[in-house]
Amino acid sequence: MDCLDPHTLIGLREWVALPELGVVGLRAKIDTGASTSALHATEISEFERDGRPWVRFTAHLGTLVQRRHRCEAPLVAHKTIKSSNGQAQTRYVVRTLLALGDHVWPVEFTLTCRKTMRYRLLLGSKALVDGQWLIDPSRSYIQDKPQVLTSPGAQ
């Protein structure tokens, strides 16, 4: 096996942050079978800011201890996603910075209700390719928790 850069290797689960949204300490599930990344969100509403479409939503963090965080982000698109059971759903798409380990890069997320899922954030293959990550599915939490500053006014 070639020598791998430990800074490019992640496991099946990792700690992430969304610094532009003020979200830190979020566990993510790495899912190479999903092309798009998804964030657990409710109370989603579209509005306009400076003539451009934005969305306001509540991000849900944590599984044992529920935390809610109000967020706003520019709306990138509406996307129809087909789930593994064949159901189609139209979702809002936002782009925001994702921090994983010492890497920070822009990722597109669909906003959807993931309350029945164990992980509130799913990191799909497009984000993994853009971040240039290699995955070892036999391991979890390889990278350190991201040490990022949240945006001004964030919790």
Automatic annotation (TrEMBL):
SUPFAM superfamilies: Acid proteases. Keywords: Hydrolase, Protease. Residues 10-146 form the Retropepsin-like aspartic endopeptidase domain. The keyword Protease applies. One of its GO terms (molecular function) is peptidase activity. It holds the Pfam family Zn_protease. The keyword Hydrolase applies. InterPro entries: Asp_endopeptidase (IPR008503), Peptidase_aspartic_dom_sf (IPR021109). It comes from the Bacteria. GO terms for biological process: proteolysis. PANTHER family: ATP-DEPENDENT ZINC PROTEASE DOMAIN-CONTAINING PROTEIN-RELATED, ZN_PROTEASE DOMAIN-CONTAINING PROTEIN. This is ATP-dependent zinc protease.
